[in-house]
Amino acid sequence: MSDAPLHLSVLDLATREYGQSNTEALQGSIDMAVRAEQLGYERFWVAEHHGMPGITSSAPAVLLSAVGAATSTIRIGSGGVMLPNHAPLVIAEQFGTLRALYGDRVDLGIGRAPGTDGATAMALRRTDRLDVDDFPQQLADLVGFFTGMEESNPLSRIRAVPGYGDVPEFWLLGSSGYSAQVAGALGIAFAFAHHFASDNTEAALALYHQSFRPSRFRSEPLALIGVQVVTDEDPAVVEEQSAPGMISFIRMRQGTKPEPVSMDEARAYQFSDLERRFIAARTERQAYGTRDEVARKINDLVESTGADGVIVAPGAAQSRYRHQALEVVAGLHAEGRLVRAGVSVG
Questions:
Q1: Most exposed residue of 197, 215, 236, 265, measured as fewest CB within 10 angstroms of its CB?
Q2: Each residue of 263-296: pLDDT tens digit?
Q3: Is 206 inside any structural domain?
């Protein structure tokens, strides 16, 4: 692989800041998509989460319709829709509708995690049977609703309208080697959630490249990695903007669903030594720091993983600093400081 510019994308969670309404949070997501398009990003994705007070992206297809109406050139999609939570036909109809409205710039990224706790997952599915072994068949059915199915499939006579014959760009999202291998075997693009599962990134991307088989969807592999970015030339600002999210994550690890943390609470919070070690481990391989540090950290990750691009996940507490993260990465990209360097993968 020769030196080439990275593919740049954005992942947004429609974050609700302290004191904001849900309406303001969702409008913030739309505003971020517009800014990403202005900055030249290729993709803007939203992720499905449920029951989390600080995240309003529980209905990706609905939010993407508003994002599509506010933009004109950037690709829009799910990063991702959690397939076990939905009937495949419903997803095919939703994304078929999006493609009917916004054309070929709609991506369909699929994940196999619930995106929530077990009780909420059961409420979504209306069953206590949460069998991940169903995922391969669910995925095959979803693809089939767009492309057609074998006659032996009992669903083969059902048509997704809109959807059938209007095939989106399929992505499989994951944080494990299993998802990487499934994406490779199906010959579709793969996005790894490095922004919250950084221990297995190199191994997962190696598995994806090793298992990739050309398909009707792709002739060559395409892999992106999510990278959390918090940046400013003042290290104190980086630390301050990171703190509310870290406090929320610590509380989630303790089994709660925290409300958004205010800047005042974050400034007053006393992190224990254990919490500081946890934060250091969580941020070590993310792009936190000054502009030069962000460039170095992203390039190091691309070099070690062989990724074709990065999905910027802005991690700052306040929207102006989340926008700043997009602006810094886009600026580095425009200057040619972010490259797909030649690596040995597999």
A1: 236
A2: 999 999 999 999 999 999 889 999 999 999 999 9
A3: yes
